[in-house]
Design brief:
Blueprint lengths: L2 E5 L2 E4 L4 E8 L7 E7 L6 E6 L5 E3 L7 E6 L4 E6 L8 E8 L13 E2 L3 E6 L1
Parallel strand pairs: 2-11
Antiparallel strand pairs: 1-3, 3-8, 4-5, 4-9, 5-6, 7-8, 9-10, 9-11
């Protein structure tokens, strides 16, 4: 059974940084497509960043140059380093995973999600 557990969310001021983590279990972690998507109140889900089994990455234009996705296969953990945060980055952030090729930026279509972690950026 695939389980994803996010952590690391919180409240920061604009310009600040946060690092989200997603601990994964129940599947062959290294062979899966993984990523992060977010959803703000009243808005649609938005794919933020994706990382393929070979380590290739993809980012939404809105976060390029500010966010970095990475994974530690030894720890079965996915990360999202978020720098230069803006108020418009405020949302619930979800980790997602699936054995799908190619790995889409629309991470929200993957079958396995975590429970989410809230990120709030104040101006």
């Amino acid at each position: 059974q695939v389980q994803l557990v996010e952590s690391g969310g919180g409240s920061v001021q604009a310009g600040g940084s946060l690092r989200l983590s997603c601990a994964a279990s129940g599947y062959t972690y290294s062979s899966y497509c993984m990523g992060w998507f977010r959803q703000a109140p009243g808005k649609e889900r938005e794919g933020v960043a994706a990382i393929d089994s070979d380590g290739s990455t993809n980012y939404a234009d809105s976060v390029k140059g500010r966010f970095t996705i990475s994974k530690d296969n030894a720890k079965n953990t996915l990360y999202l380093q978020m720098n230069s945060l803006k108020p418009e980055d405020t949302a619930m952030y979800y980790c997602a995973a699936d054995h799908i090729i190619p790995c889409p930026l629309a991470i929200q279509i993957l079958n396995y999600w975590g429970q989410g972690t809230q990120v709030t950026v104040s101006s």
